[in-house]
Specification:
Elements: H1 2-17, H2 31-48, E1 55-56, H3 58-71, E2 86-93, H4 103-111, H5 129-135, E3 141-149, E4 152-160, H6 169-172
Parallel strand pairs: 1-3
Antiparallel strand pairs: 2-4, 3-4
The structure holds 2-acetamido-2-deoxy-beta-D-glucopyranose (NAG) (2 copies).
One 2-acetamido-2-deoxy-beta-D-glucopyranose binds at residues 86-89, 129-130, 133, 162-164.
Length: 177
């Protein structure tokens, strides 16, 4: 945990050095704040659907951080092979070397898939799996990991219990209140 945090901090410092600070969201440099922003954004959206709030879990966040660091070294981010928890990924890249994101951005991106989702039935198309996991009613705990470097931002969110179970969508993905 400690090692993971300091690696993140090192990356952030590297980003900060080369860039005019006004271009940066200073909040992105703070892993604790990033996690809280992600949690709050999840819970903001969950509330709109009458789903109970998630809580942050350090074990899950360490797990998420570990994978965020792994995928930041890969040419293309991919899911953990057989993750223990539900897992959403986000990867953003900018030509601006100092590009940074706060913890809300990736959740907003995932939630946008709502426009492709049909409530009240099992999904028949792909492309809404991030959205359904964000609001999945019976998920309770959240872990968040992120790495930012060279204008790129990776975010991993882990959910326990995991969402997106076949046959369970109607009860776990309720429409907007
Ligand atoms: C956090 O998650 C881990 C792994 O699922 C679990 O064992 C632990 O009880 C959780 N911690 C809390 C405070 O709920
Ligand atoms: C988001 O998380 C859920 C739950 O683990 C998973 O089923 C889904 O594939 C993820 N979505 C994407 C597109 O990665």
């Amino acid at each position: 945990m400690l090692i993971q945090v300091s690696i993140f901090v090192l990356c952030s410092v590297a980003v900060l050095e080369g860039v005019v600070s006004a271009e940066l969201d200073p909040r992105a440099a703070d892993l604790t704040a990033f996690r809280k922003q992600s949690l709050d954004r999840h819970n903001h959206y969950r509330k709109l659907h009458g789903c109970p709030p998630l809580v942050l879990n350090d074990t899950l966040s360490a797990y998420a951080q570990e994978w965020a660091q792994e995928i930041s070294l890969m040419p293309k981010p991919k899911h953990r092979p057989a993750p223990k928890y539900g897992e959403n990924l986000s990867y953003a890249s900018s030509s601006k070397a100092g590009y940074a994101e706060n913890g809300e951005k990736s959740v907003d991106r995932w939630y946008k898939e709502i426009s492709k989702y049909t409530f009240g039935e099992e999904p028949t198309k792909s492309g809404t799996g991030h959205f359904t996991q964000v609001i999945w009613k019976s998920s309770k705990q959240l872990g968040v990991g992120t790495v930012a470097k060279d204008g790129k931002v990776w975010v991993v969110a882990n959910y326990d219990p995991r969402g997106n179970f076949k046959g369970k969508y109607r009860e776990n993905v309720p429409p907007l209140l």
